[in-house]
Amino acid sequence: MAATTDSTRGARLPRSARRQQLLAAAQEVFVNHGYHAAAMDDIAIQAGVSKPVLYQHFPGKLDLYLALLDTHAEDLIEAVRSALAETLDNHQRVHNVVTAYFDFVDGAARGDEGAFRLIFESDLGNEPAVRERVASVTRSTMQAVADTVAADTGLSRPQAELLGVALTGAAQMAATWWLDADRPVDKAEAIRLLETLQWRGISNFPLASPGA
To answer: What is the DSSP letter of 106?
Structure first.
């Protein structure tokens, strides 16, 4: 989600465009200051609108945060599902899933820097609605990978989900470390290293049927 631009400040916008503008401003404030230190005043100033305008769209700060979480959670889940669905080559699937996590974490490449921190590094983890959404992202991405693992290997569902947790968890943690360490390895090389490690492990599980 791109940061608010001067061209939208003070302008009369359609409701959907105004909502996107407010979400972009809120994301920048949340990422820079954290949820607890952010204030609705800060978000209104960042968006270039009055507080009444902000409250017309979002009753409170939590509503803004949850709207952002929902948007970015769906982005990541869809990226992982698409990564698995676009090919039947399992090596390529591993590459695609690792790439999906690196692309999501590397928000600068998408004009959406810091979005991943709302999910993976939230300072609002004790809020039930936030915790539920974060857990849902983790569960949905794991299950997408587990579906493919189970179908291709014939492993039991618990076994496939265990591998799904390992594969998605490693991709998330590696991508986050890579960004926090200031991209010490070229992105393409980082993806290649991690996919090589994961493929050498998952490829040792026999396919359920020849040609699968």
So the answer is: -
Fold classification of 65-202 is Tetracycline Repressor; domain 2 (1.10.357)
Query: Which CATH fold topology does 6-59 show?
Result: Arc Repressor Mutant, subunit A (1.10.10)
Count CB neighbours of 56 within 10 A.
14
User: Which tokens go with 91?
Assistant: 């090596």
208: which DSSP letter?
Answer: S
Q: State how far the Cα of 99 lies from the Cα of 83, in Å rounded to an integer.
A: 8
How large is the average pLDDT for residues 2-11? 46
pLDDT band at 4 (very low <50, low <70, confident <90, very high): very low
Q: What is the mean pLDDT of residues 83-104?
A: 95
Contacts of 26-31 spanning 24+ positions with Cβ under 8 A:
26/58, 26/64, 26/65, 26/68, 27/1, 27/3, 27/68, 27/114, 27/115, 27/118, 28/3, 28/4, 28/114, 30/65, 30/68, 30/118, 31/113, 31/114, 31/115, 31/117, 31/118
Given 3-state DSSP classes, what are the helix, strand and coil percentages for the chain, each rounded to the nearest 5?
Answer: 75, 0, 25
* pTM (predicted TM-score): 0.83
